[in-house]
Amino acid sequence: MKRGIVVACVLALLALADTARAQSAQDYPNRQVTFVLPFAPGGAIDIYARALAQKLTDKFGKPFVVENRPGAGTVVAANSVARAAPDGHTVLVSPSPLAINATLYKKLPYDTANDFVPVAYVADIPLVLVVHPSLPVKSIPDLIKYAKANPGKLSYASSGTGTTLHLSGEMLKSMTGIEMTHVPYKGGPPALNDVVAGHVQLVFADPSSALQQIRAGTVRPLGVTSRVRLPGAPDIPPIAEAGVPGFEAVSWTVFMAPAKTPEAILQKLHVELTALAATPEMREQTVKLGMIPVTSPSLAELRGFLPQQIARWGKLVQQAGIAGSE
Question: What's the rounded Cα separation, in Å, for the pair 118 and 127?
Fold first, then answer.
């Protein structure tokens, strides 16, 4: 009899917990929701996140705001979300460096693979490989041929060690067997500017900046790092099509919640973010910002996303000899 009473009590408690979880999801959001962004205001992801936040504010009648927390290569923003209450009211708008940093840093204040859960994958930001017009190459095969005929003469700029711009160059070196010297800068704009000035021969650049210089004729495009063509520049081929099969290096945009956020809240956020990102208005804005719209996988399909990305980018970090360098 005592055992039966204990079982009945446990079942009752579980039922109450299920009811509480369902109720919390039904009431969500019940206060301000903060999208934490690891970059300064004004960039493509910032503009995109603010547009989504406004639409969610209009729908739910609760404020959805973007908080910019740049610093330490996204670590500052990621740590603030990892330590936040797992209730769906603090969400990280995460780029690829979240996965890169797991190998790049000797020690992080959070466990990348276990302290975050992906909610919605909404966009990719590819890079455009551009060269100074004085470099006698007009295609990826030309670049590879030139690099092999002139070992040690090519240098490529990046926005800093361990960034996607840097690791895109390392990927190209690894997949083609060419040698290039890495020249890190404090940000993408100065890196591109030095290529425009002819101080460095090439750079993997952000589309929004690169396309302006391409139109001005100050740089020559060779390819994009995504597997598909950039909607805003369909004449530039993917590097994977232009001579390096399998090449892909994009910075993804994934909304991440703290681990242990209730499944029902995750599902509600997933549905809302995925639906909004798929609207013609948001897809058009995504393309204008130099991004590629992504139809998010389901929550279940996203479960293995971070470990896969940590392994993929970690391999490049190891090859570049910069593991644990930060």
Answer: 23
The residues, ordered by sequence, that sit 6+ positions from 278 with a Cβ below 8 Å of its Cβ are 293, 295
List, for residues 8-29, the tens digit of each pLDDT value: 444 444 444 444 444 468 899 9
Round to whole Å and give the CA distance between 324 and 326.
6
Closest CA relative to residue 251, chosen from 142, 121, 141: 121
Q: Is the CB of residue 162 less than 8 Å from the CB of residue 326?
A: yes
Q: Which of 202, 201, 199, 251 is nearest to 225 (CA)?
A: 251
pLDDT tens-digit series, residues 228-282: 999 889 999 999 999 999 999 999 999 999 999 999 999 999 999 999 999 999 9
Q: What are residue 156's phi and psi, to 5 degrees?
A: -130, 140
For residue 151, the SS3 value is coil
Neighbouring residues of 235: CB distance < 8 A, sequence distance ≥ 6 = none
pLDDT the model gives residue 13: 47
Q: Which pair of structure tokens corresponds to residue 235?
A: 């004449």
Query: 270: closest CA among 303, 310, 298, 237?
Result: 298
Note whether 102 and 310 are within 8 A (CB).
yes
Question: pTM of whole model > 0.90?
Answer: no
Q: In degrees rounded to 5, what are phi and psi of residue 236?
A: -90, 120
Task: Convert the pLDDT of each residue in 29-44 to its tens digit.
Answer: 999 999 999 998 988 9
- Contact between 245 and 171 (Cβ < 8 Å): no
Residue 232 pLDDT = 85
Report DSSP letters for 255-299, one per residue: EEEETT--HHHHHHHHHHHHHHHTSHHHHHHHHHTT-EE--PPPH
